[in-house]
Amino acid sequence: MKVGYVRISSKEQNTARQDELMKNLGVEKVFTDKMSGKNTDRPELTKMMEFVRQGDTLIVESISRFARNTKDLLELIEQLEEKQVQFVSQKEALDTNTPTGKFMLTIFGAVAELERQYIKERQREGIDIAMAEGRFNGRPKKKLDIFDEVYTEWKNNKITATKASKQLSIARSTFYRRVKEYEDNIVIDF
């Protein structure tokens, strides 16, 4: 059986190009994930790996759609080989039934991992520049309209930190961080 695996990095992206490829190749069953490929913790990937069996052929559009680092790629390929499932990457024209295909798989896996590292590096550089220009401050802080009241109750030992964080709908660690920020900003007037 021809089995396909399709992945896009976010819900805003479109699978149409990969879906069309699967259709043209006569793929009978397709598994699609709409999430990052940074690791193998993907629901449809897991289902697909459980589904394939001896004699099947797994087809992907490109290695980067299947795995984004060499370690994950090689582990997935090893699992497929144990099940006697052939792996085909259309873009790189790789077929794991040949020694050359296996060798090239390792090379392309390393390239996909390098590409992921470059993406992360460019993202970090962009964030650093935006922060330096005052355009990026991270995720906005949650507005806590009743923080003063809850803080006072907590400070007077009327409620616990757990209860305070529940009233504010924040994590207890966030509550303690906000308490520290609040106490650091109190101006003592003499």
UniProtKB/TrEMBL annotation:
CDD domains: SR_ResInv. Residues 1-134 form the Resolvase/invertase-type recombinase catalytic domain. One of its GO terms (molecular function) is DNA strand exchange activity. This is Recombinase family protein. PROSITE patterns: RECOMBINASES_3. Signal peptide: none annotated. Keywords: Coiled coil, DNA integration, DNA recombination, DNA-binding. InterPro entries: Resolv_N, Resolvase-like_N_sf, SSR_resolvase.
